[in-house]
């Protein structure tokens, strides 16, 4: 049974109210409900992949990497990036590259300039609707694309994934995502252990033959529906405590009481996360997921006091996982790239998506590159009362909304080239006022330019080919390369452990952002005043 539980978190600032969760209480599918059939001789990579518990491309489990997918949902703020960084910033994958992750971003409380930074640092930016609604209408989904493109400079072609708020989606959601040009969706649960013969822990698959997960829950799905050729589903793999199927945990497992106990117990949570991981690792190597609402683990967010024990436990888990051979911490976009063209462990050097590169930009150049030293002095603070944010792409004169995701730029500000021409892309979206497009009427990041090289002030690209000015920092790996375990283990900042080998191009680290003096603290004081009386307690209803 699936219970879409609302995780309400009361905090002193509004974003906690968005940290909501979909959680499962038991199996959400069965072979009978799935009624799934797919002919692998007709459904072939890279465009088609049958739902299967076995690795893609006919590879044997011992020849494929063990992927740990790390995701975060909701607003991007300094607090939430600090929270993610305390788990990832000090780590390396086996090729020496910093791990990348997927951020499912919603509009409310997002600090757009940090989205640019996070993307240019190599992470995946994906869509989680504008205002965090379940079974979202098309404008909520596409408006978010436009806002992320216009205010954070994320190329539309790079926003390929979606996760539904509350994990609440319908067959229509899947259809509208496919029609809006998304490549994958990741809201369904794999809620039967991989050790169970009837497991629904399928590797990511395309919907050429319909869904095979959540069949007991989502009306009209499965038994061959919906047919969306080439559109991928990435199941979210649950973890299971000592009660097995009865003891299921999906998002933020560290906020759950384990083993039917009545309190949080990090020791027990670590035990079952390890045992579920081992079941995957020793079995068919279906990916393992760490699906987070990072605000709950932020040590910098006013009023949230995550326990050190929980933070250390998650780092211990990742340390332990990384000590094992062939474990890679990845974004869903990296996993997708490998799925489409799967390579054995010995051939991983050939997988571009797993490599890391540094954009070479003169530190003294003033450009909105997503690199703080280049952007210094160029950011605008857009002081909206609901949630102020910074952007390098010019402040909109009103708050972006579902009806108007890319409002005109404020008069008198240095003009930016950021008109996304949403009408051309998504006819169903209300057009921004025509004056918004008078300035340039073109895409902010042309398809032949990358975000770090696009100058929205001059309206030109510093580097007009896809790979110029990038330097590859990956180290050799595979049959003739270096070893196949990751590095930088030893816990995060709280553990006081080793910080690992310095990684190239880390534009900010776990403590990189401090509140500037001036407007921002004043805003927080205002928010504190408005919400006085609300307890600073993170709880679950
Ligand atoms: C927003 O971004 C600016 C610029 O990077 C930073 O100084 C500020 O601390 C950020 N605030 C939040 C709440 O994310
Ligand atoms: C899913 O979202 C829709 C629209 O917001 C809502 O009507 C419905 O009750 C939600 N379903 C669940 C199970 O929460
Ligand atoms: C926490 O879990 C561990 C390991 O399962 C167990 O030994 C311990 O008794 C538990 N602690 C509490 C307070 O329940
Ligand atoms: C999100 O922001 C919009 C304005 O863009 C506002 O209408 C809505 O109420 C906000 N939602 C939440 C949950 O704060
Ligand atoms: C990049 O695209 C722009 C606009 O489409 C075009 O004018 C320019 O010539 C292109 N540059 C290269 C190097 O292809
Ligand atoms: C394996 O990786 C570790 C951690 O980066 C490094 O210290 C060690 O020298 C590597 N061993 C080989 C044989 O490359
Ligand atoms: C948690 O860790 C922080 C940072 O190391 C430290 O300042 C704080 O005192 C610790 N809190 C507890 C309750 O141990």
UniProtKB/TrEMBL annotation:
Q: Which domain of life is it from?
A: Eukaryota
Single Gene Ontology BP annotation: carbohydrate metabolic process
The record's annotation in CDD domains points to: CE4_CDA_like
Q: Which UniProt keywords apply?
A: Membrane, Signal, Transmembrane, Transmembrane helix
Q: Where are the transmembrane segments?
A: 518-538
Write down the SUPFAM superfamilies for this protein, in alphabetical order: Glycoside hydrolase/deacetylase
Question: Which range is the signal sequence, renumbered to this chain?
Answer: 1-19
Q: Which InterPro entries match?
A: CE4 (IPR052740), Glyco_hydro/deAcase_b/a-brl (IPR011330)
Q: Which PANTHER family match?
A: CHITIN DEACETYLASE-LIKE 4 (PTHR45985:SF3), PTHR45985
Supply the name of the protein. Chitin deacetylase
